[in-house]
Amino acid sequence: MVLRVDIDSANRWTDREVLEQWHKLLKGDELTHKFAKDELAEAYEVNRLKHSIAIYRSRLCDISWFMRCLNEPITRQANQEDNCTDRFWEGRFI
Q: pTM of the full predicted structure?
């Protein structure tokens, strides 16, 4: 498998588009859901949200982060089936 990150495209995403992509992968938090519903009012919330969106944009363009999101549920299921808690992918992802 070959993965390619289109950073230029991701950098053109609006803040709302970043959160839409993030919410497809993870639940998000109360603040991101408030933004999605246009409920932000306080300046401190907007500043915190901008910081979170910058982090999310970076993670959405990171292949290692992608592999983490891909591997975590597989690892949990495999460990449950094998009754163990070891690192399932240790030595398999370089």
A: 0.76
